[in-house]
């Protein structure tokens, strides 16, 4: 069974979210769609937080967040301990986000990249394993150095 993916967007990312859902469904991923459900204006933090909680609570293996630029959703997601959200505008960043940073949330800019590029980024992100080794040591270092910063 393929991984379970939680996906969320704001109004600016809605159309891209729907295209990515189509692709992931064809690839046999399980999808949890948190919203939004139209192009009507909404506040992205609400959807970003709900999606990230599903990853933290292990109800989903990974998350995909989409807003206009991806910046807002990145800021929201990375406020949560244990979330490593990566804003990726091309496949190389998606590959390195997984390979070196064990990113568990992919963030995309619905007004920045087109559908074909987004699909390629998603494919790369989910087909790249975490390399571990020195990268795992660095992730542990980030956790230890920032542990008390959020309290």
List the helices and strands and how they pair.
Layout: E1 4-9, H1 14-26, E2 30-35, H2 44-56, E3 62-67, H3 71-77, E4 85-87, H4 91-99, E5 105-109, H5 115-127, H6 134-146
Parallel strand pairs: 1-2, 1-3, 3-5, 4-5
Helix pairs in contact: 1-5, 2-3, 4-5
Report on this model:
The chain has 151 residues and is α/β, with parallel strands linked by helices. Helices cover 45% and strands 17% of the residues. It has helices at 14-26, 44-56, 71-77, 91-99, 115-127, 134-146; strands spanning 4-9, 30-35, 62-67, 85-87, 105-109. A five-stranded parallel beta sheet has the order 2-1-3-5-4, with helices on both faces. α1 (14-26) crosses α5 (115-127), α2 crosses α3 (71-77) and α4 runs parallel beside α5 (115-127). The radius of gyration is 14 Å and the shape is globular. The mean pLDDT is 94.
- Based on Cα principal axes, name the global outline: globular
Structural class: alpha/beta
Distance between the termini: 37 Å
How many E-type strands?
A: 5
CATH homology superfamily? Sugar-phosphate isomerase, RpiB/LacA/LacB
Task: Provide a brief overview of the structure.
The chain is α/β, with parallel strands linked by helices and 151 residues long. It has helices spanning 14-26, 44-56, 71-77, 91-99, 115-127, 134-146; strands at 4-9, 30-35, 62-67, 85-87, 105-109. Strand 4, helix 4 (91-99) and strand 5 form a beta-alpha-beta unit.
Based on the model shown, name its key terms.
151 residues; alpha/beta; Ribose 5-phosphate Isomerase B, Chain: A; 5-stranded parallel beta sheet; 6 helices; 17% strand; globular
């Amino acid at each position: 069974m393929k991984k379970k993916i939680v996906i969320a967007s704001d109004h600016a990312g809605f159309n891209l979210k729907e295209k990515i859902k189509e692709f992931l469904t064809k690839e046999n991923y399980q999808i949890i769609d948190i919203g939004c459900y139209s192009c009507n204006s909404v506040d992205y933090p609400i959807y970003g937080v709900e999606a990230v909680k599903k990853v933290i609570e292990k109800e989903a293996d990974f998350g995909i967040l989409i807003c206009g630029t991806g910046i807002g959703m990145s800021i929201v997601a990375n406020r949560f301990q244990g979330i490593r959200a990566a804003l990726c505008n091309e496949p190389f960043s998606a590959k390195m986000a997984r390979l070196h940073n064990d990113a568990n949330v992919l963030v995309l800019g619905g007004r920045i990249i087109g559908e074909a590029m987004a699909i390629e980024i998603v494919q790369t992100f989910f087909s790249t394993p975490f390399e571990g080794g020195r990268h795992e040591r660095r992730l542990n270092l980030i956790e230890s150095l920032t542990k008390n910063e959020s309290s």
